[in-house]
Amino acid sequence: MIKKTVLEELDNKISLILEKHNELKEENRLLKETLVSSRETEARLRQEILKLKEEDEMKDLELEDIALRISKSMGVSLNHETVSMAS
Fold it and tell me: How much is the pTM?
């Protein structure tokens, strides 16, 4: 059996530490890329949500307008919830 010198053991341990360091460095790089991508996706989705909320508000206004026009054409007041009787 060959005995390793202290210097050889130290060299081996340093090599293992450097290998682990490089692995962690690569993992960190990948995590940073994932984080950047996730932030971009979040920003895009927030914009989409705002757009959809605006569209929803516009649809609500359109529906209110349609309901108002229908009620006027039928002689019904939606604001006071009273029905006008035609004589």
Answer: 0.59
DSSP the chain: -PPPPHHHHHHHHHHHHHHHHHHHHHHHHHHHHHHHHHHHHHHHHHHHHHHHHHHHHHHHHHHHHHHHHHHHHHTEETTTTEEPPP-
Residue 21 Cα distances to 17, 26, 57, 78, 79, angstroms: 6, 9, 53, 71, 71
Are 84 and 75 in contact by the 8 Å Cβ rule? The answer is yes
Q: What is the mean pLDDT of the chain?
A: 90
